[in-house]
Amino acid sequence: MAINWFRLICLLGVFYSTIHHNDAKTVLIQELTKWTLRSENSSLETSVPRMPSGVYTALKDFYGDLLDPGNDVALRWIANQSWIFSTKFDSAEMGHEMVNLTLHGIDTVSQVRVNGQLLGETDNMFVRYSFAIGHLLLPSPNQNILEVEILSPIQEASRRFRELEKEGVFTGPPSCPRARGDVECHRNYLRKMQMSFGGEWNPVALSSGIWKPVAVEYYTVAVLRDVDVAIKRNKTYWTLDCRAFLDTTASKDFYVDLKAYASDLLDKPFVLENQLVSFTSPVLEFQISIPEDRVTMWWPNGYGKQMLYPILFKVKCYTSDAVPNLSSRTESQKILKVGFRTLELVENTDQSGRTFFFRVNGHPIFTKGANYIPAHTLPELSAETESVEYLLKAAHQANMNMIRVWGGGLYESENFYNLADFYGLLVWQDMAFSRAAYPLEKDFVASVCLETAQNAQRLSYHPSLALIAANNEIELFLVTNKSDFGEGANRIENDYNALFDTIMGELSIISRNDFSPRPGPMISTPSLGVAPYADDMPTNPQDPNYGDVHLWVDDKDGFSPETYPHARFVSEFGYASLPMLSTWQRALGGGSNVSNEEIASLIRSRQHDIKGFIPMLQQISYQLPFTPQNWDENIEKFIYFSQVAQAMATKTAIELFRSLRTGNQTMGALIWQLNDVWVAPTWSCIDFYGNFKLIYYWAKEFLASKCVIALYDASSNNLNITLTREDYADHLDSQFYNVLINTYLWTDLIAKKTIARAFGLGSNQLEVRPIPLELLLYENHSKEEIFLEIVLEDKDKETVARNYYYPVPMKNISGIKDPELTVQVAGQDCNNAQSPYTNSFSLLVTVRFPALLVYLELVHPDYITKRHTFSINGFTQTEPRKTVYLLFEDDSECLTLTSDDIKVQTINQYLLQNN
Ligand SMILES: *[C@@H]1O[C@H](CO)[C@@H](O)[C@H](O)[C@H]1NC(C)=O
Ligand SMILES: *[C@@H]1O[C@H](CO)[C@@H](O)[C@H](O)[C@H]1NC(C)=O
Ligand SMILES: *[C@@H]1O[C@H](CO)[C@@H](O)[C@H](O)[C@H]1NC(C)=O
Ligand SMILES: *[C@@H]1O[C@H](CO)[C@@H](O)[C@H](O)[C@H]1NC(C)=O
Ligand SMILES: *[C@@H]1O[C@H](CO)[C@@H](O)[C@H](O)[C@H]1NC(C)=O
Ligand SMILES: *[C@@H]1O[C@H](CO)[C@@H](O)[C@H](O)[C@H]1NC(C)=O
Ligand SMILES: *[C@@H]1O[C@H](CO)[C@@H](O)[C@H](O)[C@H]1NC(C)=O
């Protein structure tokens, strides 16, 4: 129910919607959807099957999918030439109106022509361009021809680089050419998604295209583009501080009538009449007050509901001598769904440095989540509703409450931010700059200012938007590589300061310092935080006692809590792993008949990390019995081990960070990375086809609001048991919990002993209690022979959470047995009452001895391409019988399954093999 209503609003809210075609009072928006594409020399011409589109998407039927094996290199020539998109349209009417051609996103450098006349050029894919075209249009029945000629991004990036060099503008790193074939050069000279030039977890994918809608707009005076709403509260009222941003062609000040409809909030529409607006900065500012008792607040996931209220804004614009009448296209509108919350970034000086955490509705939040990369490496496919919703819903279901939109990607679609609002995912938004020196050149700076203003105005009202960081890792990059830059170092630093000071200034358009200030912006991530912004560049942006850190420690033992600094906020950290076997088979276009050599060679070619497989193999070797040299001889084992190592190391880190919430020391941790753009060894939790890696299943538990954590403290030989509640209740009073620690031998399903500890814990509280490890061992058995199960029960003896502690690295376990594990398909249910069908299976897993990290994998050749989820996976089983559910949510048929369709791996099997 809720979802359907939400979708409806999304549809209405799209501002280029065509619902008002026939209403002559409103701005007419004629979206251009039928295009053809031709090559530079016209040797190829094809109609474009769908919009938005780009060359790789439109030419898929001719040359294959860019993401098919080898095509990232084989199809690079497509990005090495110009392509022309063209369309024809009738002019809807030729009255006294203004007519503009508005291009919401062109990727990237293009020349735009109407009826053969050059209208203008675009060179920033993050900017909306609009051109007055009334004077060029032919009256009906003549057709107008629009051509967008998109220049090669490879050629353009290097041409711009050479030109600036010639003009004496200082050009900065990353230098080029690179020896490796998996990146293209000079990305910093184009305002194009930076990851398109290739990187560690993605291909070179130099798209060219129309990645957002193109429309012809007929209007009289102005068009409403965005409304920014900032919200604050006092005891009796919520106040919406609104700014309506208009675009106009007027050359003198004009008048605006505005109405705001919000039936859940206001008894009658809010009305403003005859407001004079300046044509040089056409913004209408106003405030709306809402009695406090009409509002249910918006909370981040895990802390409360995500209540959203639609508000419809309608404006009529007219000049004094064109008072609006029924036949003038004066009215334009916009629907927003606002959420009522307050949000602050708390940076208080304390004994170790300065805090860095978010306080929402007055409540400190431990921020946990993941870094998001575009849902598709081709920008025109990055906003697909189905894939974005799948990922954000998955983040929500894994108990995440923040998503960081990384600076090497995009400013995401409306759809993305609406879904983040809906799922309670706070958004940390980087601006689209990453690890490079950008040129301080007049046109470049002007374009970046436009990019900043347009995107800030569009995004800032969302209740999910928590922070804007102006770039990813540039300060870190400049500080770390300073000595390599030699004489240029100071110059680079000055240019950086000048460019980003300008951007920070531009962001003041949404800061609301005079109202209820929004957090940030923060100049760079990682950095020392927002507070010290006026200072010089920090000598160590990674100082753990200030701001945020990007933590890359994959050369150290990730399973030891000592590896991790007690940082304030870890906005990036993670471990790499391989996607499951069926994902590789599918990427190779086949099922189980794909050979091992083919898979191994694809894995090798997709490994773009400069360090290769070393970090992954090293993490595995700390814990698991594995001979790294021969990984390709047993790929299934390598995949399973890599996923286990990723999950275990990440879990250790997150648990340590959560246990450091006392005193606000650590208040956030974001895993790198949620999703994937192709099938490759990467740091993702969810693979390219949407399959969950083991870490994802574990994240549901290690990110849950109520958790019991067990971390070994080497200096005291204690096991620290931490009980944490990250939640919010009106009544903060303490509740009773019981922690049971069961000691098992690897040889027996029955716990040998149990120690209980009672805790009383209130909302958003945390308690750490050290217990000597000696107390938890069993008789004269060594640590190699035992493991601990830690169960958290509430006052009704319901299990709230469960955790395990393995006192030695798994490769050193002694006495482990073959669990004699069986899986049966015990039940099945096909719900075909609604479309799509839901198929669910209950799998009965039986064991006779403890089974370590049971990993279930669907291997049915026809079903592996269907999205499916196990209720749990990678679990340690001490119960003789355990039921696991397997769910297929999106089907048009009832499925059947046998136990042969489920493959099982356990650590037991590999430990026994080794002996
Ligand atoms: C046009 O360009 C394509 C691809 O760049 C090339 O293969 C073809 O030979 C060219 N055709 C002509 C007629 O020049
Ligand atoms: C692009 O074309 C130029 C010649 O115009 C050539 O030197 C270069 O190698 C080509 N690059 C790619 C990636 O095809
Ligand atoms: C129409 O294009 C002109 C530039 O040609 C621009 O100044 C104006 O703001 C545009 N109008 C709208 C509604 O975007
Ligand atoms: C609370 O806000 C409302 C609306 O802005 C205002 O009218 C009222 O005076 C404020 N009350 C207090 C106590 O500040
Ligand atoms: C109504 O608006 C149209 C279009 O702007 C204009 O041509 C016409 O003169 C106006 N009529 C009146 C009565 O103002
Ligand atoms: C942590 O922050 C909260 C919320 O601002 C504050 O109430 C509390 O005193 C802080 N704790 C410490 C130990 O500084
Ligand atoms: C265990 O708890 C003690 C006391 O609270 C603390 O000093 C120590 O750092 C903790 N160790 C770990 C690994 O959490």
Supply database-style keywords.
single chain; about 900 residues; alpha+beta; Immunoglobulin-like; 4 domains; six-stranded antiparallel beta sheet; globular; disordered N terminus
Descriptive account of the structure:
The structure is a single chain. Helix 6 (385-397) runs parallel beside helix 7, helix 8 packs parallel to helix 11 and helix 15 (635-659) packs parallel to helix 16. The longest helix is centred in the last third of the chain and has 25 residues, at 635-659. This protein starts with a helix and ends with a helix. The model is unreliable at 1-22 (pLDDT under 50). It is built from 18 helices and 44 strands. The protein is of the alpha+beta class and 915 residues long. It has 4 domains: 222-338, Immunoglobulin-like (Sandwich); 343-702, TIM Barrel (Alpha-Beta Barrel), CATH 3.20.20; 706-812, Immunoglobulins (Immunoglobulin-like, Sandwich), CATH 2.60.40; 822-914, Immunoglobulin-like, CATH 2.60.40. One 2-acetamido-2-deoxy-beta-D-glucopyranose is lined by residues 346, 350, 364, 663-664.
